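Students often ask why we bother predicting the structure of a whole assembly rather than each chain alone. The short answer is interfaces. A chain on its own may look different once its partners are present, and contacts between molecules only exist in the joint model. In this exercise we take two input lines together and write out one structure for the complete complex. Read the inputs first and try to guess which parts will touch.
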Amino acid sequence: MMGPFPSGPLKWLQEQPSSRLLRSFPASSSLLYTQHKRTPSPSPSKMLWVDKYRPKSLDKVLVHEDVAQNLKKLVTEQDCPHLLFYGPPGSGKKTLIMALLRQMFGAGAEKVKVENKNWKVDAGSRTIDLELTTLSSTHHVELNPSDAGFQDRYIVQEIIKEMAKNRPIDTKGKKGFKVLVLNEVDKLSREAQHSLRRTMEKYSASCRLILCCDSSSKVTEAVRSRCLNVRVSAPKEDQIVKVLEFIGKKEGLQLPPGFAARIAEKSGRSLRRAILSFETCRVQQYPFTNNQVISPMDWEEYVTEIAADIMKEQSPKRLFQVRGKLYELLVNCIPPEVILKRLLHELLKKLDSELKHEVCHWAAYYEHRMRLGQKAIFHIEAFVAKFMSIYKGFLIATFG
Amino acid sequence: MGKRATIVLSSSEDDGDNNDKDFASKPILSYFKKPKSRAASAPRTNTKASKKARISSSRSHPGKNVNPFDEMKAFCEDFGEGFTGFKVSAGHRKDNNKESWIDKYKPRSIMDLSVHKKKVEEVKLWLEERINIKKDNHSNHNHVLVITGQPGVGKSATIQAIASHLGATVYEWNTPTPTIWQEHIHTTNAGLRYMSKLDEFENFVEKIRKYGLIPSSPTTKTQKKPFVILIDDLPVTNGKISFARLQRCLNLLVKSVCIPTVILITDYGRTDTADYTSRCYEELQTSLQNAGACKVAFNPITVNAISKMLFRICREEKLKIKSQQIDSIAKASGGDIRNAITSLQYFNLKSDSKGISDNSNDLDDVAFGRDETLSLFHALGKFLHNKRETENMITITSDTGSVSLKEEFTRLPMKMDVPEKVLGQAHGQARPIADFLHENVLDFVDEEAIDDAWVVSSYLSDADMLLASLTGARSRNYEAENLVQSTAASVAVRGVMFGNRHPLSSRWHAIRRPSLWQVEQSQWRNKKEMVGGRCGVSLSDLSVIATEWKPVSKWLGGSMGGGDMVDDLHLDHSEEICDDVDEIEDW
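Now the answer. The structure tokens for the assembled complex follow.
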């Protein structure tokens, strides 16, 4: 399937439209989780299952099996192009990337150290000090450039430059380049993406980029066209069930029939989420019972509570209380988009269907403004106010 | 004093003369201070005035023009020296009428001061103590006094007056003239080296710390008089680094100086909390206090005190100005006596030219006084209370307005100035204004009116968006920035006022500080914590940590969050937890 890759990745990319790339990595997904023996990890008892059963290599690892196999072929047979992994959270992007790195560099890629690096960036008239956590091995560096906030563009350039400087010597059997893994590329500012584009070409001889993001639509066209796009779709529910059963077997747990399916259903097709809540259930109650509650995340419960508040009373005073609760969520770093989405979800559950359309419209409206704006609370609150106003009008119209 | 006594100079003489005699390396521009015989001479207690005096004196002797070169040199070290027993004649202007009243009616004694008696007493006591102590032993006390207050409340005048009362001489650090960059470029080939004002200040502080001002030589002991150093106008600092330097330098001063030193800090823009420089000064004050300096805060001068002073001037100048007018001048000055006196002089000028008989009743056409300023809270109160005219007024206005709006869009006319004007008076910046309105507006919306609440919050969301577009624009276009700022502010304010159709009847509301600020801070802290604690096999997105890892790790018992145990503490902790889990399993 990966056959027609000429050696020069960029040339190839220019020849083929990116839409075709998608086809070469089919969306159909199979398990990330292998049937292989558990890889020895330093302290298995202390690890979360998510990490414990994370497949370690492309071979062992099946996940989205065909994707993994294609990637393997790519790095063994050809020069590796820049890669862009995208897909919803919990679909296995990171796992694939890590396994890929291992495939490229061997076990050395697993010996990582976490560092808080300070960068001094010379920006013309002044120097900017930036601090960023990086995860690096001898062969790769991983980081979240968006942590640097609005100064992300400096980070991107600086790191790539630095990596280019200490370019590893191309000895036999070793790759003559380092890999830079950038997470959350979709959260990079436009400027940063532009500078990424330029540096990508300039230093492509010494460094490969692996970009990772949730949605490729927020990555500029220019960056996308310079990468091999790898879509990692969300696993289907039955696939999640399979993974859960596999883990259950490994852990020696008794799974009542249908239990794994319920977790999978609750997970919203996020494998990570499913495994996490599986483990939580295990801690909360074992042996499992069929009617065991699969508890949502605490913040989700909190949002449900907020939604109930909103439905109960529609007044400025209540709006003010809701604001306080929203603050609570924001303080805990729950992203405002997630809050709004969840809130809408909860509100829609209880809503009369004739209002749904309008409410969705306003949610989208304020979500957009939130992205344009600076302080999320202004917009979430405006949505809540609008909802209250709509709902109150509806109540009065119906019940007088 | 030895050497120094030989270089008595008056301000009116060539400044260059003494350049080489003192501090051999640095040219000094000294000029005259004469606290004792001030009554007879042109009084120059105020620093501002003395700066003026320097300029005017050089002008009055055109033959001895100081060339610009010397003037540039003079920036380097520039503080006044005082001498006694020397009569200043040159300072006298021939034409007394032309003299600025601020100089003319400078307070000459403590009695003349309009500053509150208690504060004067406080400062006096402090100075007395220091001066007396100095004779016995040198450094068991702190010798620094910080005086704060708005501009024009008589901070330096008080010091001068008290010093002259105690027979002390005041030495001043005067700010060097700022260098204009182009000018500097122009003069570089003349061999002038640029020296940052902060450097100069540091040098100055170093000098007085190490050497004191005057070498106490025994020969002059009999005539020796106590000294007070007055530091007005701290150098402007820009950015954290230079501010830290200033702070360090002042702290050193506080700790080691042996001569009574008074530092004046002017409170600018008391109302504007978001202003960076004012916050700096506040920080500076506290750090100075921590280092052991005393602090006395001067309040604005009361309207009564000002009008008393103005009356006195009127009496002496034989002016015919109505008490009502004086009152309004006093009121408009906002506690700034310097401003009040200038206004009076200007006002007098105007009525002179017009002819005194002219009806000076209407004060409105006389532009005097400072622009009225409002505190931010006052302005916010105006917006939030949203006071409107009563019903019947609207008919009049709607008649005049050619466009008739639909009923839902009409509002009663506002009972205040145009919001933009109020904003200008309050020096409100858009961001804090929007935050404050957002925090407080819901208190002022009627309980039933959720629709209003929506309109209001929708407008605030608009304002937020405008403000964000500001930060997004990388190109530093200040004009555009200003425009967007003011647009955002007026959208926020007008949105709040328009949206709130049914304002609650006015009752007392406390205006809260936006809790959003606190939220943002702790959010930022949490974020940092998460980013810092994030480790393990892979760096996860922050959102994933917040929404998935954290809640799960809470269930699983704390520290398993990142999935990887880096530090030992965490390791131990999680082992314990694992044990617990095992136990439960056994049960």
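Check your guess against this: Strands of chain B lie at 32-33, 81-82, 144-149, 169-173, 227-231, 261-266, 294-297.
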